[in-house]
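Friendly challenge for the regulars: who can give me the structure tokens for this chain first? No prize, just bragging rights.
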Amino acid sequence: LPTGDEPHSLWAPDVVRDDDGRLHLFVTVVPGVHVDWSGSRFIDHYVAADLGSGALGRWTRVGRLPLTSDRCIDPSLFRKPGGGWRLWYKDEAHGSATLAVDSDLATWAPAADPGVSKLYGEAPKVFALGGFHWLLKDPDSGLDVYRSQDLAEWTYQGKILDTPGTRLDDGSIGKHA
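First reply, four minutes later:
Bragging rights claimed.
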């Protein structure tokens, strides 16, 4: 992907489709030669018409998201019930808090406390299931699970995947959902 920062590495992508059918990709960009997590990192926004044959090479960079620091990673987007979108992310410069911005996919504004910012956790992931919204975060001890009716107020539901499995390829706890 064209980032404007060469060399770079890309992490934790999330893709959504807008009302016009265009795809929007949000991805963590770590500029420079990645050897550790001490440098800057950002979330960049790309668009593509579709994922048809060869479309992976046709992403157009929209730009860098205007977030709270130069240490923001792990984007997760979800359409808000009243319209628009919310993007959750981890800001490592602010105590590794989970923060959020609201958007129409063109402009971005800080959201009120997304209700899950107080506890450490990487890679917030939001989805709908069974009539509720769910948010999973990786606190490095399994996955914390939150539930919401409206994407604003979240109730902690407990932890899953906090015990390693016993099969050959299942010997670790759950990580990045």
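The chain has a mean pLDDT of 88. Residues 112 and 173 are 31 Å apart (CA to CA). Your move, everyone else.
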